[in-house]
Request: fold
Amino acid sequence: MKHFKQLTYPYMIWMIAMIVIPMALIVMYAFTKQGNDVATLQFTLEHFIHFFTDADFLHTLWISLRIAFITTILCVLIGYPIAYAIASGDEKRRNLYILLITLPMWINMLVRTYAWIGILSDNGLINSLLEMLGIGPQKLLYTDFAVILGMVYNFIPFMILQIESALAKMDKSLLDAANDLGADGLHRFLKVTLPLSLPGVISGITLVFLPAVSSFVIPKLLGGGGYMLIGNVIENQFISVGEWNFGSAISMVMAVIIMISMYVTRKLDKNDDALSRKRGKV
Amino acid sequence: MRSHKIVRRLLLGAIFLFFYFPILYMLVFSFNDSRSLTSFNGFSLQWYDKMFHDANMLEAIYYTLVTAILATLISTIVGTLTAIGLSRSRRIVREVVSQINNLPIMNPEIVTAVGLMLFYVSLHMEKGFVTMLLAHIAFCIPYVILSIMPKLRSLDENLAEAAMDLGATPFQAMMKVIVPQIMPGIVSGALIAFTMSFDDFTISYFVSGNGVKNISTLVWTMSKRINPSINALSTIIVLMITITLLLVNLLPLIKERSERQNKPYPKRVLQVASLCVLLFVGFGLSWLKNGTKQHMNSADAIAAFGSDTLKVYNAGQYIDPQINADFEARYGVKIIYDTFDSNELMYTKLQGGERYDLLQPLDHSRITNLDLLADEVKGVSFDPDNTFSIPYFWGTVGIVYNKETVALEDLEKEGYNILADPKYKGHLYLYDSERDSFMMALKALGYSMNTDDEAQLSEAYEWLRKVVTTMDPEIVTDEVIDAMINENKDLAVVYSGDAAYILSENERMGYYMPKEGTNLWVDAMVIPKNADNPKLANTYIDFMLEYENSKRNSLFVGYTSGNGEVLEELSGEGGEFEGNEAYLPRSGYEKDEIFHYNEKARKLISELWTKVKISK
Reply:
């Protein structure tokens, strides 16, 4: 039975080298002073203190969380009806729609985001339209709006696909049963469809929130050089400033925040599962 | 029920419009006759032509494809084996491995990227193709494992046992029994791996280097300037992907049909088709490789210089690429050309664990064209005898302004403080350079730009912070060039070379150097102490000084030449830059300074500038 067990060993070694050690290095850098000689490592908390006592950095963290939060909410609000519309079609259509949604994801994210620059710029397409309507030009590029738009554009497919697959897996006879029991459309949706699709929504949320909170590409392209989210601060510390210790500390802070929010979201999901199971029993 | 259907159609129509509109937009503008990304001026194929002649782009496509194919192959094989092994391992092993395996999936990409970068640096591995490939394999395997595990869970373990009882070796049992059953998982894992690698930006950005770029990192460096070749490149990618996906989705249908009709031959058709695809990919890759590197009589080069490769590190968009091609052709060598976005980035990269304040003296016997230097850049204070450096381009930092909307009196009266004048609120660009932003602030306050006095620096910080928080400026880098040509704003802080280009493209723009003084800068060519090929590097520097190359470079980049004859010719009567006040910046003004490096000030300025940007 244990014939194939050894197949795991090479990857274990690889995993330690390419996953565990890099993470350990980040932690090491975050807690030590500059000067990377192992012999002269000096433990310090100064990078974390620096980050958490500086109003500007905290503000950036707050803005990043806010933008990611808004993006996630928008993705749920827009993604859910779309997923619903796709899931309620027949099999052939569904496959076509899913293909159509996946196709843009194959195209380089930078390239897709770059295309928005021309559309949103001061004399771009949208502003020409607005001008024709007499309400332009508006400043669109290099605003929160542009950044959120870029994020929703890039991340909403994950949300749609997750919710759609949850909806498609749903047992349709449950709806018939609810119908037979006299529930109207809204009730059927609220009591049957929505709870059953919630796992899809939850995993969609994690898939959107995670890249949204850490992205530094979209804010830089659509928010402009002066637009700093927490991802940009990290990039800046590593690439331009050269303060790797401080950059590592911020990376750690971000990773921990994300782990916590993932954990909480998962917990919510589990509770809900238990809840619906309980309800099912009663 | 009917209205239901209409709502559904509308919703789907809207979302697909949202998804496909930017792609369509890109597609259309890839055929645009002009550089504009906002108005279509006529049909042309020039951007495709440019793309196919741009060695950088071809090389990026080549690296992207090779990395994606290798990373997919390796991660699929390793991932499949590991997954099979895990399914037979003890629970605790399985749990621990899956938890660690999940880390790269749960972690933000930038954290994974930073970790890998630190890992490579601590091993003293030089960033390049290998580091990028290893990183790609590392982030692909977890996804492969994740997509195979569920298939294995639903697999009957006894099947493999039965096969082995019947005399199959474990390998045969795996290949003939287990693998076919988990094939769908393997295929979807491979597909995920391919897209992840093909699309990756964040990780490649942190772990590649030395001239190795994939499509994403190339687009990143080019995205500051309007460059319709990016659209051409994207269009080709879109086409390739659409065809691939169509094939992937059509093949099962064809197979199904032929099975229904019980005809045996389509299997052979399939084999032939896949062979064709393989051949096509193979030829495509070798063509790309040939397109990127023309290697000629390298033996002579090795005899003369000891090596046939030269690594050049320069600022982005700061050379006429033809000059490198000419150099390669003349000496039969290969240039590995890499670029940086800012001086700070260059320091960090060159640092790589070692000190970067060590340059080696130039070999003046190889640099015969030294006397061609312009008087303005001879005997500069940081290296009066050109022991270590040879000027490349030079200039000042000043303000480009729209002559119709900005009064020259305001500029003359206020100098840099015009950037804090509420009259121009929301109409200005700052340049994202920590050093020159602080130069400007210090000059506006009447201090030297070379100060390391903390009180003065913090005063400058407050000045910048006030500008950023009250004037609503946009902080940009090279995108300012096209933006000012398009008259998007009224005022911009720019380098004189960029200003010269802006002025030559738009007559309504003027260039002003404030009376408070400015940064008189000279970009120079130097050879680091640990350079691999100093002989060839000296020859390269000499080559750049030649009249023909200096002129071509100055015309292409738009910056002020260090070659005296070229300078005179281009700024003089009938020259390309005649009457362009930015091309020939003032020299000899007492308040202008040359920047002197100061470690303490650099650190402080660097941090303060990050904070200024955050406060926006």
Observations:
- Chain B touches chain A through 106 residues (CB under 8 Å).
- Strands of chain B lie at 309-315, 334-340, 390-395, 397-402, 428-431, 474-476, 491-495, 509-512, 521-525, 560-561.
- Chain B is about 60% helix and 10% strand.
- The longest strand of chain B covers residues 309-315.
